[in-house]
Amino acid sequence: MRYRLLTLIASVFVMLGLSGAAHAADNADAASSKVKAVASFSILGDMVKTVGGDRVAVTMLVGPNGDAHVFSPTPADAKMLAGADIFFVNGLGFEGWMERLENASGFTGALVVTSGGVMPITMREEEGHHHGAAAEDHGEDEITDPHAWQNLFNGEIYVKNIRDGLIAVDPDGAETYEANAAKYLAAIEAQDKAVRAAVAKLPEARRKIITSHDAFGYFGNAYGLEIIAPEGVSTESEASAQDVAIIIRQIREEHIPAVFLENVTDRRLLDQIAAETGAKIGGTLYSDALSDSDGPAPTYLDMFRHNVGALTAALSS
């Protein structure tokens, strides 16, 4: 009797072990069958996850709260990209390190420039600091503004490019990608209407802000805010003393009510400007990177909700 009991117990453990091994194997097979996608930074990563759903495994080179302007790829990044099926990048000069990484990795998968089809704006030097300019007003001192995702209409273009890129590498998932993208596009359109409604309630005289670097040109153009920044389109650039002096004078003359920090930039310069002008710090805006999952802007749409909430709270009175 005791022998049979021990035999039964042993059989149960064997079956449990086989079941666990089979479950692990199933998980491994499921993971290996997914499309391996790499996104250059967190905002794109969120978009790819939303469109790709369960069919896509997404890795981000520059994660939440990371600054893609100053990112430097590592050998581990090159190895990871080498095994990817598809690589999503912003383009418009945002990833200055992209070509170097591609060459180092030997990447042979599909490259999707998600800003393809966007009408870019340029930044031109004007009175010592940068302002947005229409793309057709080209001049010697102009550079392309890469932050096109800050206009939700452009966000719809990104989503369509992501959808089409995934369908190209995984035709069997076309129905899933099309359905996910359609739902996402509807949510983006609704958020665009909400942003416009919120900004429309602000007094026109108060629709001016200072931000850390010039990441909100598309946002300002689309939604009717004047954005002034002591730094250019990249956080690698530094504001000169003349730039800062001009901005301080402008704040005083035009009674600009608030300055905003960004999650990817050093706050000391804006603290100085706020202290010298009396403009209040209106909070933190998310420009080039999302927050961590437990922060206020863990997704692309959450980023807009948070930013508009911070703007309207600071500018409404």
Structure described in brief:
This protein has 317 residues and is an alpha/beta fold. The protein has helices spanning 2-33, 42-52, 75-82, 98-105, 152-169, 174-200, 217-223, 241-254, 268-277, 300-315, and strands at residues 35-41, 56-62, 86-89, 110-113, 122-126, 129-133, 143-144, 208-211, 226-228, 258-262, 280-285. Helix 4 (98-105) links the parallel strand 3 and strand 4 (110-113).
Question: Your description of this structure?
Answer:
Helices cover 48% and strands 16% of the residues. The chain is built from ten helices and eleven strands. The protein is globular and about 60 Å long.
User: Nearest-angstrom radius of gyration?
Assistant: 24 Å
Strand content: 15-25%
N-to-C CA distance: 84 Å
Number of helical stretches of at least 4 residues = 10
Taking pLDDT < 50 over at least 5 consecutive residues as the criterion, the unreliable ranges are 125-140, 231-236
Counting helices, strands and paired strands, the structural category is alpha/beta
- Strand order across the largest sheet: 2-1-3-4
Principal-axes geometry comes out as: globular
Order of helices and strands: HEHEHEHEEEEHHEHEHEHEH
Draw up the topology in text:
Blueprint: H1 2-33, E1 35-41, H2 42-52, E2 56-62, H3 75-82, E3 86-89, H4 98-105, E4 110-113, E5 122-126, E6 129-133, E7 143-144, H5 152-169, H6 174-200, E8 208-211, H7 217-223, E9 226-228, H8 241-254, E10 258-262, H9 268-277, E11 280-285, H10 300-315
Parallel strand pairs: 1-2, 1-3, 3-4, 8-9, 8-10, 10-11
Antiparallel strand pairs: 5-6, 5-7
